[in-house]
């Protein structure tokens, strides 16, 4: 079978994009689409290893693991070993399932529709078939996102326990469907607070950035916030931990920024995109997850 480089890279770009998108969603992480596209492009280019001489199984496995680790870092960044390991695990799991499906299709066709070489799948398909396949895959992704959506309970008001620099405090939070603010570099959801609301939980570096936003402060991320009044830069930080509680349910948020506005507000403005894992009340009382 003749292999066309443009078809090879395009197919693997689409496949890698979909795998990264699905794996990110399944592990409850909101990823930036641009970063996913860059990672997928790198994955598509890496498919050129198909033209290398047949690799030994161990070299092939090691190479695929390294590529997967790199794509995970590019697509979602690196914030902690735990979040990175979870994203890598889901990417490898989804990729394994996809590879099994593709191998099954190749075997039942007697090798007529495509082949595997060095862990790379190649299908000789037309532009129309590629468009139809991509559309079908996108529909499947929407379905997976819908049934795999995890996270918050349906209530609108929450007790929010926040740990910052070793200090823990409880604040009142409200879920706001209009808060779609994310960090543009990582796709991380952003919660909005005020200095008066945070009180002693407000890091000194963030307080300094509020008064001198252009000077820069270590550990502070500037978030662009658009409101009816225009755009402003809000200093933001990552809490060590955030726990939402409402109606007997508890959600340990795994990835979040808290942006601080100088405007006085009475409650944390929570983001509906927040995800995490449910914690039973018994586990909280035992202190196992705290």
Report what the structure shows:
Helix content is 42%, strand content 22%. By secondary structure, the protein is α+β, with helices and mostly antiparallel strands. It folds into 2 domains: 143 residues; 130 residues, Cathepsin D, subunit A, domain 1 (Beta Barrel), CATH 2.40.70. A 6-stranded mixed beta sheet has the order 11-4-3-8-9-12, with no helix packed on it. Strands 5-10-7-6 form a 4-stranded mixed beta sheet. Strand 3 and strand 4 form a beta hairpin. 30% of the residues are buried.
Low-pLDDT segments, ≥5 res: 149-155
Determine the strand fraction and express it as a percent band: 15-25%
Mean pLDDT across residues: 77
Helix percent reads 40-55%
Tell me the span between the first and last alpha carbons.
57 Å
Order of helices and strands: HHHHEEHEEEHHEEEEEEEH
List the helices and strands and how they pair.
Elements lengths: L4 H22 L6 H14 L10 H20 L4 H28 L5 E4 L2 E4 L3 H21 L9 E8 L2 E9 L14 E4 L1 H4 L5 H8 L9 E7 L2 E8 L3 E6 L2 E5 L3 E4 L7 E3 L5 E3 L2 H6 L4
Parallel strand pairs: 4-11, 5-10
Antiparallel strand pairs: 1-2, 3-4, 3-8, 6-7, 7-10, 8-9, 9-12
Helix pairs in contact: 1-2, 1-4, 1-5, 2-3, 3-4
């Amino acid at each position: 079978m003749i292999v066309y480089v443009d078809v090879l890279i395009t197919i693997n770009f689409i496949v890698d994009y979909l795998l990264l998108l699905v794996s990110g969603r399944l592990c409850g992480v909101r990823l930036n689409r641009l970063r996913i596209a860059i990672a997928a492009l790198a994955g598509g280019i890496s498919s050129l290893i198909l033209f290398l001489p047949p690799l030994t199984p161990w070299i092939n496995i090691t190479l695929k693991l390294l590529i997967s680790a790199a794509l995970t870092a590019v697509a979602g960044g690196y914030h902690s070993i735990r979040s990175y390991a979870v994203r890598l695990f889901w990417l490898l799991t989804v990729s394994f399932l996809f590879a099994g499906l593709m191998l099954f299709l190749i075997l039942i066709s007697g090798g007529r529709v495509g082949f595997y070489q060095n862990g790379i799948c190649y299908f000789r398909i037309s532009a129309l078939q590629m468009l139809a396949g991509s559309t079908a895959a996108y529909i499947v992704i929407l379905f997976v996102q819908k049934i795999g959506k995890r996270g918050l309970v349906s209530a609108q008001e929450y007790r929010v326990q926040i740990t910052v620099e070793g200090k823990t405090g409880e604040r009142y939070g409200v879920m706001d469907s209009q808060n779609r603010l994310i960090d543009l570099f990582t796709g991380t959801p952003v919660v909005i607070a005020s200095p008066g609301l945070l009180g002693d939980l407000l890091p000194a570096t963030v307080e300094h950035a509020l008064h001198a936003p252009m000077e820069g402060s270590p550990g502070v991320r500037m978030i662009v916030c658009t409101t009816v009044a225009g755009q402003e830069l809000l200093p933001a930080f990552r809490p060590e931990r955030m726990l939402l509680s409402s109606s007997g349910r508890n959600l340990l948020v795994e990835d979040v920024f808290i942006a601080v506005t100088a405007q006085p507000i009475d409650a944390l403005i929570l983001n509906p995109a927040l995800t995490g894992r449910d914690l039973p009340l018994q586990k909280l009382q035992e202190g196992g997850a705290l």
